[in-house]
């Protein structure tokens, strides 16, 4: 645990975003019926997409926060699907770029009902309601905030921010213990960070810091960050031995690592 990582000079292994990489965000472990992650070169850009086989007769394309999803019947060959994608390449690349910039909207600019907020990889709509006691509940589409003064944007923002940090700690604590167990270690001292440049770090004392924004990532990617930092308890560097430890405790890490690059905007937002 002595090698340095990056140019920071400190003996801290940091997980920083891989700039410029727009990988698939779904990770490598889609259940079989959740579609197939594929990649195609369109207008000089590598575009990841999810191919879902359905009953439909036409080929459907959808672009959203999750990237490009293509739906087609099993009877349509991949080369025919990809020919259609090539035909629509300008639209696809332009729309994906628009969504990438939109990803900066991870926290509301205005804290009012309907504003988008990212939670565990899903874009939810803020729903504010007056109530005597403050509370927050999440359903499939909404982050519902009960607050004595729901029109007070600052108070709501502070309340939600505090809640997100609490949720982050609740979410990461058992995962840290689970990945530590995979290297036969006790859960290391873990704290949350508000860093702008890194998802997590691990220092020589074996202390781990995790960005509270992990609670905004899809859980699989948050897990990858945690597994990555836990692996630094074994190898405080990014050597081949380190990546072997990561792969051992988080199989398929390469796809998650690529995917994480697409969420860099979260750190900067
Ligand atoms: Zn690292």
Q: How is the largest sheet built, in terms of strand order?
A: 1-11-12-10
Instruction: Profile the largest sheet.
Output: 4 strands, mixed
Q: Describe the oligomeric state of these chains in a short phrase.
A: single chain
Query: Unreliable stretches, pLDDT < 50, 5 or more residues?
Result: 1-11, 17-32
The secondary-structure class comes to alpha/beta
Helix count, per DSSP?
A: 7
Total beta strand runs: 12
Helical content (DSSP H or I, runs of 4+): 25-40%
Write down the overall mean pLDDT: 84
- Provide the β-strand percentage band: 25-35%
List the bound ligands.
zinc ion
Radius of gyration: 20 Å
Shape type: flat
Element-by-element helix/strand order: EEEEEHHEEEEHEEEHHHH
Distance between the termini: 33 Å
How would you sum up this structure, described in words?
This protein is an alpha/beta fold. Helices cover 34% and strands 25% of the residues. It has a domain at 32-102. The strands form 3 sheets. Strands 1-11-12-10 form a 4-stranded mixed sheet, covered by helices on one side. It has a 4-stranded mixed sheet with strand order 2-3-5-4, covered by helices on one side. Strands 6-7-9-8 form a 4-stranded mixed sheet, covered by helices on one side. It is flat and about 55 Å long. The two termini are 33 Å apart. The structure holds zinc ion. Zinc ion binds at residues 5, 13, 15, 228, 232, 238. The site of zinc ion has 6 residues, from strand 1.
């Amino acid at each position: 645990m002595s090698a340095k990582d990056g140019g920071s000079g400190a003996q801290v292994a940091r997980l920083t975003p891989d700039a410029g990489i727009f990988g698939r965000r779904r990770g490598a472990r889609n259940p079989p019926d959740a579609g197939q992650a594929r990649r195609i070169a369109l207008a000089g850009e590598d575009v990841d997409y999810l191919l879902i086989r359905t009953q439909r007769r036409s080929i459907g394309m959808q672009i959203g926060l999750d990237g490009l999803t293509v739906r087609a019947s099993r009877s349509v060959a991949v080369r025919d699907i990809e020919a259609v994608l090539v035909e629509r390449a300008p639209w696809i690349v332009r729309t994906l770029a628009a969504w990438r910039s939109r990803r900066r909207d991870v926290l509301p600019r205005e804290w009012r009902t309907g504003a988008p907020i990212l939670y565990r990889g899903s874009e939810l709509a803020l729903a504010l309601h007056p109530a005597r006691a403050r509370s927050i509940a999440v359903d499939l589409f909404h982050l519902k905030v009960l607050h004595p003064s729901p029109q007070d944007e600052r108070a709501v923002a502070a309340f939600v921010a505090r809640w997100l940090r609490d949720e982050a700690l609740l979410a990461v604590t058992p995962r840290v213990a689970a990945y530590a167990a995979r290297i036969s270690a006790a859960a290391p001292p873990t704290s949350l960070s508000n860093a702008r440049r890194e998802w997590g770090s691990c220092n020589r004392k074996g202390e781990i810091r995790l960005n509270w924004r992990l609670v905004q990532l899809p859980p699989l990617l948050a897990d990858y960050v945690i597994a990555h930092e836990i692996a630094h308890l074994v190898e405080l560097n990014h050597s081949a031995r380190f990546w072997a430890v990561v792969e051992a405790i988080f199989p398929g890490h390469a796809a998650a690592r690529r995917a994480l690059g697409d969420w860099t905007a979260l750190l900067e937002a």
